[in-house]
Design brief:
A hairpin with a 6-residue loop joins strand 1 and strand 2. The strands form 2 sheets. Strands 1-2 form a two-stranded antiparallel ribbon. The protein has one domain. It is α+β, with helices and mostly antiparallel strands. The chain has 3 helices and 4 strands; from the N terminus they run E-E-H-E-E-H-H. The structure holds zinc ion. The site of zinc ion has 8 residues, from loops.
Length: 68
C-alpha cells in the first residue's frame, strides 16, 4: 500500500475559519469509512458542523469507492 495522505478541509459556519486535517488512508478508513457526510470540529470556536465528504475531501470520496 502507498502512504498517500488525504486532506480533509472544513470551513466553520460559525466563525468562518478553515481547518485542514491530514490523515492516511488507514486512518480515513477507521475514522470515516465511506460515509457521505462527516462531522468536523472547529479548532477556533469548537463548534461541530457537518460537511459532505465530497466537499471536505474529494480524493477520499473517490478512492474509498474504488477500494470497495
Ligand atoms: Zn469556528
Amino acid at each position: 500500500m502507498t502512504s498517500k495522505k488525504y486532506q480533509i478541509k472544513g470551513a466553520c459556519p460559525q466563525c468562518g475559519c478553515t481547518d485542514v486535517t491530514v490523515l492516511s488512508a488507514e486512518e480515513m478508513k477507521k475514522k470515516y469509512g465511506d460515509v457521505p457526510n462527516i462531522e468536523l470540529d472547529c479548532s477556533a470556536c469548537t463548534a461541530k458542523y457537518d460537511s459532505e465528504m465530497k466537499t471536505a475531501c474529494p480524493e477520499w470520496d473517490k478512492d474509498c469507492k474504488l477500494e470497495g
